[in-house]
Amino acid sequence: MPSFRYRALTQFGEIVAGSLVASTQAEAERRISSLHLLPIEAVEEARSASVFRRGFWPNRPSCAEVTSFTRDLALLLKAGARLDDALDLLSGDRDVGRLRPVIRRLRLAVLGGESFTDAVSAQPDLFPSMYGALMKVGEASGTLSQVLEVLAAERDRTEATRRKLSDAMHYPIFVLLAAGCVMLFFILAVLPQFSSVLRDFGGRADPALGFFMEASDLMRANRALLLISGAFVLAGGWWLMRQTKVRASIVAALATLPGIGRIFVFHRTSLFCRNLGLLLGCGVNLTATQRILVDVMSVTSSPAPWIEAADRVRYGGKLSQALAESNVLPPMAVRMLRLGEETGELPVLAGRIAEFYEAKLQRSLDRVLGMVGPAAILTISIVVGGLIVSVMTALLSVTQLVD
């Protein structure tokens, strides 16, 4: 639904401003009046501005701030606070950081007669579909505080796993960048000192050294163009990495690599089973669970097999059979899920499967990290060492000519 920014008069003649979500302008004005305010204007916010905020605005709330808000809201509700009062308290709390304007909008929506589920569902870029589904279950069953507490714990665990993957990728990227910088320094600063001597005295250079000497001359002659191109490549890569479809394509490509692919398979399996156990444990039916998990898992791989599995479940098929035919999870995980279906303990077994594959994920990450660093250092050492030997050989040939 569209969001409206409004200005209104209070009973004391003061002008206040804010925003709320409504289907039409008339509905927005009605909700403003229900807050005992006299509407002055209600203008629909431009969608382009919303897209700008979601994609590029640096003050966009982080996942950690959403998790902190979820945990604090659960604590306030368990302490006996009403939902609107709890949101009012959190809207002034510094711990939620950049989420404070969003919390104010949630409170206005709740005061305007919306359910908390509808209020968070109107912010899909911050609160995913799984968040809204769990809030719906919590409001319907009167266990909103418990659902929020469980959700906060699961978000903490998911973010910890994501940080492990991120840190595991940062280390090899840093090593490769450092190795690249060493190579650039050698090519641009060290090699030209020797290449001029070799050319003046007619020294003989092997094909590899000749290639690097020509590359050095070309790069030094087009220094400005190289810097501008590098800046554009970095900016374009940063923008592409912010696109969900591009990230999913990169992850899918990495998942096909031997060794590294196992890491992404373990992560995908633990994420699916963790969310499956959470949704089913909170009372969401299996069909709705599969529909929500399609959105969650589309980030980890191509969405087509997840949609196919969800369709099979929707038309009466078993979850384990649908996953086996779609071939998106390891056979062992599928067999354990089948056992959970047969025993009626699917939520419990899903959580245990997640823990099992999280342990395998950690072991795989440790093994890969132990190999990437030494391999990168060995490779750059061989390349630089080979170039140094080639330069020294060429210099010796020059010395012989001079003698």
Automatic annotation (TrEMBL):
Major place of residence: membrane
PANTHER family, sorted: GENERAL SECRETION PATHWAY PROTEIN, PROTEIN TRANSPORT PROTEIN HOFC HOMOLOG
GO BP, sorted A to Z: protein secretion by the type II secretion system
One annotated Gene Ontology cellular component of this protein: plasma membrane
Ranges that cross the membrane: 171-191, 221-240, 368-396
Organism: Bradyrhizobium barranii subsp. barranii
Topology of this chain in the membrane: Multi-pass membrane protein
Type II secretion system protein GspF domain ranges (all copies): 69-192, 272-393
InterPro entries found in the cross-reference section: GspF/PilC (IPR003004), T2SS_GspF_dom (IPR018076), T2SS_GspF_sf (IPR042094)
Keyword Ribonucleoprotein in record: no
Protein name as annotated: Type II secretion system F family protein
Protein family membership: Belongs to the GSP F family.
A Pfam family hit: T2SSF
Location within or outside the cell: Cell inner membrane
Keyword field: Cell inner membrane, Cell membrane, Membrane, Transmembrane, Transmembrane helix
Tree of life domain: Bacteria
This protein's record includes keyword Transmembrane helix: yes
